[in-house]
Every structure is written in structure tokens, then in C-alpha cells.
Amino acid sequence: METNIRLKLKKTASGVGFFVVSIILAMNIISVILAVPAYLRAPTISNSLMSLLQLIASITGMFIIGLFYCLLSKTSLNEVLPFKKVKPDLMIKTVVMALAVVFVANYLTDYFVQGMSLFGLHNNVSMSFESHNVVDNILYIISVAIIPALTEEFAFRGIILHKLRKYGDAYAVFISALLFGLLHGNIVQIPFAFTVGIAVGFITIKTGSILPAIIVHFLNNLTSVIVSVIGENNLCDPALTDAVMWGHMLNNPCNRVRPPRVKKTEPRFLDEVEAKRLFELLEEERIDIKTAIRVLVLTGCRRGELLGLHWSDVDFEQSLISFKENLLYTPETGKPLNPDSFSKKFINFIKAHQDDLPYVSVHSMRHTNATLMISSHVAITTVAARLGHANTSTTAKIYAHAIKSADEAAAETLEDLLNPNDSTNTA
């Protein structure tokens, strides 16, 4: 009898192990397959596209593999997706209890990260997200909060928990939570995800329904999304600083956050010869593209500022352009021009003339404007003002390469001025 149980346990463990490995392989393979063509088309993958890739990988890795596993193991979906009707009071109690566990786990994880820092170890997981528009935010919520809550609960509290319950509820909850934690593959996320897995596994068994676990998972991930968006826009830190000053909090948790390291790269730009060639090639383009790119180079404005232009922002008598947040209407449709659409048109133009121009982005036109002004000995204060920088130190930091070259050229000019007859006799 005991031998028979061991054989069944071994068989179940092998099946569950195969299922988890299949999920990991599927998610990684699908991500690579989808990301490579997108990267080749546009080296800078947009937030919307990245969210879609994450969405497809999650659905494929968790849900589709889960369906195949159920088919192979002859398991009914009703068994692994228990949606038993739960009384409202029990639903509220179990969800609140699980969220309390999540809160405590998150708090303990914070101290764990601080303890790691004492030994020179730092958390390298970043949840930062740069929101450009409403579509980015919607896709971000769907791909990070909604879909993972559905697919991961289907896989771990549905299939795995169900398969292991025959060997005891405690054993099933523990193993499913452990696998859930290990799937996250990060020293910081593993203990947190394990603790969350214990909580949602318990309430799944307690209620006989997977719905409470999905709700808790969704609310936890949604909180992460909100914090990520708020943090990216620098809204959280000032608010918490004020809360400490007013005595509502003992300290600001944002002070313990180590921002991700940003790799410093030299800005791409066109030199004087390349800029002239750009203007020559633009003469053969449509009036809207030609005008837009010329404005970018001549003013150094950002893409968003360019696309916010309206006729009322242009003063032809004073030769002035005021950049405001309005809409740019295309000649053909009269509808607002999408920023990503404009960037795609720009990249297509650059690729069409790759024999004449180096690969640059829309933002490189802003760098081109600043670099050409600096090389023409325009005062750094003027350059900073035209670029909209709050202080000259920002300009000097970004365009240190151009300032250095301009300084060297100025030194040579001064030397030639003071020593016009100084030359080396090689005869």
C-alpha cells in the first residue's frame, strides 16, 4: 500500500515538474521569438509593444500549456478551475486575510532587502514604467495585473494544487507555493511569492473556489502597477516626505529604494555636414515630414512638443514658435498624429537614406540642434534656455563632448590669433 502511494506520488510529481518546466520554456521561447523581429524593426521597443509581448508570453506559457496538460492527464477544467459560489462575508474575510499576509510579506521583504545591502547585495529587480499615453497604461495593467492573476492562479492554485491535494491539503499548499516562488527566479521575489502562494492556496481550499485567489493576486499586482507609474512620475517620494514632516509617518520608505543603474551613453547626433545632407534629402519628401524634421533640428524641441503644435502657436511676423500642449493635425485626415506613428515615419526615412546618414532617432535631432549651437560658440546659457533646461549644469552634463570639442577649437583659434607667424620649419 505504501509502495503504491509512493509510486503515485512520484508519478504526480513528475507530471507537475514537467508542467512547470514547460511553462518556463514556453514563456521564454515565445518572448524571444516575438521580441527579436520587433527589435530588428525598431531597436527601441515601445512600452505598448513590450506589454503585448509580455501578455502573449504569459497567456501562452501558463494558459495554453495548462490546457495541454489537462488534456494529456485527462483532467476536467471544472476540477482545476473550481468556481464554487462563496458567501459574501466569507469572500471578504478570506480576501482581507490574504491581503494582510501580502502586506506583512511585503514589509518583511523590505527589511530583507535592507539586510542584503549590508553584505553588498542589492535587489536588481526594477518595476519602473514610463507611461507615454493611455494605451500604454491600459496594456500595462492588463499584462501585469489582470492576465497574470488569471493564468498563474489557473496553473498553480488550479492545476498544481488540485493534483497534489490527494496527498494532503497542507502538502499541496506548500508545494504549489514553493513552485510559485521559484518560478519568479529572484532572491527577493522568491520568499515573497512563496508567502503569497501559501495565503492564496489556503483561501482556495477554505472557500472551495479559485476566485478569491484571483482577486488577491490581481489587487497585489495592481498595487505594484500603481506604485510603478507613480514612482516613474516622481509623485510618491514628495508625498511621503510631507507625511514624515507632518508626523504621520516615522520615515519615508522611498529613501530605502535603490534606483536601477542607468547605463550612460553618448547622445547620437548629426554633425554639420550630415545635417546639411539631411536638409538636402528632405527636399524630396512630403511637406509634412520635411517641415516636422526641419523644426526638430532648427528648434531642438522634443517630439511631444512638436506634435503639440497648432497654427496659433506660430507667429510669422516675429518668426517665433511657442510650444504648447495642443494637437497636430495631419493634412490627409485632420486627426491627431500619433507619436509612435511619427517616429516610425522618421525611422523609415533614415533607413531609406542609410547610405547618406547614420542611424539616428527622432530625439537625436534635439541633440543635433544643441551640438551645432555649441560648436558655433553659442553661450551655454542660451543653449540651456532654448532646450528648456532648468539650469546650465544639465546642459553641460549631457553635451560635455560637444563643449570639450568647442573648447579645443577655441583654444586653437586663440593660438592662431596670437601667434600668426609661428610655424615649424621642416626644410
Element layout with pairings:
Blueprint: H1 2-41, H2 47-72, H3 77-80, H4 88-118, H5 134-164, H6 169-184, H7 189-207, H8 211-232, H9 236-245, H10 272-282, H11 287-299, H12 303-307, E1 314-315, E2 320-321, H13 339-352, H14 364-375, H15 380-387, H16 392-398, H17 400-418
Helix pairs in contact: 1-2, 2-5, 4-7, 4-8, 5-6, 5-8, 6-7, 7-8, 11-14, 14-17, 15-16
Distance between the termini: 106 Å
Q: How many strands, what sense, and barrel or not for the largest sheet?
A: 2 strands, antiparallel
Oligomer: single chain
Main structural class = mainly alpha
pLDDT < 50 stretches? 124-129, 423-427
Tally of individual helices? 17
Description:
- This protein has 427 residues and is mainly alpha-helical.
- The chain is 67% helix and 1% strand.
- It has a two-stranded antiparallel sheet.
- The protein folds into two domains: 2-256, no CATH class; 272-418, Orthogonal Bundle (hpI Integrase, Chain A), CATH 1.10.443.
- The protein is elongated and about 105 Å long.
Question: How do you describe this structure in short?
Answer:
The chain is mainly α and 427 residues long. The chain is built from 17 helices and two strands. It has two domains: 2-256, no CATH class; 272-418, Orthogonal Bundle (hpI Integrase, Chain A).
